[in-house]
Fold:
Amino acid sequence: MAANRIITVVGCHAEGEQGDVITGGVLPPPGDTMMAKKLAFERDHDDVRQLLICEPRGSVARHVNLIVPSTRDDCVAGAIIMEPTEYPPMSGSNTMCISTVLLETGMVPMVEPETRFRLDMPAGPVDIVAECRDGKCVSVTLKNVPAFVFALDAPVEVDGLAASITVDIAYGGMIYAIVDAAALGYEIVPGEARELGELGEKIRMAVREQHPVTHPELPDISGVSIVQFAGPLTREGNRVRARNTCIVSPGRSDRSPTGTGTTARMAVLHARGIIEVGGGLTHLSIIDSEFHGTVVGVTSVGQYPAIEATIQGRAWITGLHQYFVDAGDPWPHGYVLSDTWGRDTAVLQQ
Structure:
């Protein structure tokens, strides 16, 4: 074999959602902020994302994260998140994977029973509190970037639906359109995953067209990126509990409860007066894994009232991989097919 490239990746998942971490073979991009680094990598090195996420080396269910030097003195490291069709500014499940890999591979010294550090993410700095025991990162609690609501009960016309629907549009590190699953006849169970994926993409495209939104302080973050199908709430003291699934473009259910989605939904619930500071949301995924979100404060982002929130979950390392690109391989950037990727086989979000 004559390899043109070798990339080392630590496999990891957070509550079922794959968030592998690149630890060798890829140089960091330039930039004086993590957002600038993300944009530079997206512009100049998207071949790395396609190589590792597209077939035959990856799959539509995979996310990959690149560890890079921080641009801030108060952060131990930075990260660029790569998903099937986009580079999110923030991701809760991926941050849990990144934190777990940093600790369990020794890149960040582990302190028991608790290790604290900060990560430099494109959406802003994120504080980490990792519960550590017997050399293992048992759980990760992250303080997410501030979350806020763009619109409540926004009407949307969706191709294929007889009547218009309403969505809540909120930011929790990514921009979400949150839909009442029960109103559309869904229970959020595994057997509905394919149908929810296809419908979620239709809703996402409709909301992007009919309700364009942009983060007031980070103009590179614009447009609804993910649709969340939200289940009914049950009350547990000052907390609520609910199922959900978030449709990751190009149209699949997030296996985890989705950290940025949990934060966005808490912003909506706080705006509606359903949860207060000190309360929170226990979010279940389509495979019954859980994230535990808590509203810890209030603030503002531009003209929008906002919440500060933490998300707690777990991640597990699954293996160590080295990926090769043989000089004669006809698919050095991989390929996608609609049987798994979805009807739209674009490799960047539309």
